[in-house]
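User: My collaborator sent over this chain with a note saying "see what the structure looks like." That's all I know about it. Can you take a look?
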Amino acid sequence: MKRSRTRVLVLVVLAVVFVGYALLLWRGPWWLDGDRLRQHDLQPADGVVITGFRTTLVALGAGAVAGAGLYYTDRTLRHTRERDREQAEIARDGQVTGRYVEAIKLLASERTVERLGGIYALERIMRDSVKDHPTVVEVLAAFVRDQVPVPLGAELPEKGLPEESVQAALTVLGRRPQVAEPFRIDLRHTDLRGADLQNARLERVRLGGSRLDRANLIGAHLEESWLRDSVFTGAWLDGTHLEGAVIRGTDLRGARMQGAHFNGTRLVDADLSTAIGLTAPQLAEAMRDGETRLPDAVARVLRAAP
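Assistant: Without extra context I'll predict from the sequence alone. Here is the result:
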């Protein structure tokens, strides 16, 4: 209804403009210079004035028509480009959806090589489509939780390195593009013993109740992460970024922590009693609560500090 009314209004305006223009062509010379122009028995001088006025008016009208034509052409081109862009986006979304479905099918396969294909296909989708980034991250995290859960109340069997597809999913998560994420990566209660997470970007990750014994976390980014009741015995944490992390009830005995960053880290009931390479300056800016245990030499220095 609104578009119809607008169209009628435009037609009325065009009709008024056309009638006004015709009247101006016919009577314009006398409206503008009626005192000098004769109404009857026109002389050559009168004809020159009238012809000049009408020629100018026709030229202006032609310019206006040409300008309107250019404006209309520009609008048509813009509309066509916008429509083509929308169609291309729809086609691209359809292609991404198809690739995503195929990747999920591969991820559910019993064969390691097919799972690897699904994981790397999801990584490609994550890099090609920003809006699909959160979905891919959550799917990969769910895959890890499903493949290597820590059973509640049960002893874990001895284990070496993670299964190849699990390690691949962790690697992809650790090198994902830097995009704002409205959630924390959820890797709670996962068995990541021996995992290679060197230099991985896992800021704000949730690792509560997870096992990372002997894991390689050298230079990893775990800023603002949640590490409640997780186990890092014998892990490599040299240069690891733990700024703002919550380390509550965490077992870090035997972990190598030379150059690890603890600015703003909250240590609550954590066990760092046999951590290797840990120094008092590293913990100067950390917040320590509860029964947090530190190496004796570090604890003495911190107690003596003003």
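A starting point for your reply to your collaborator: The longest strand covers residues 246-248.
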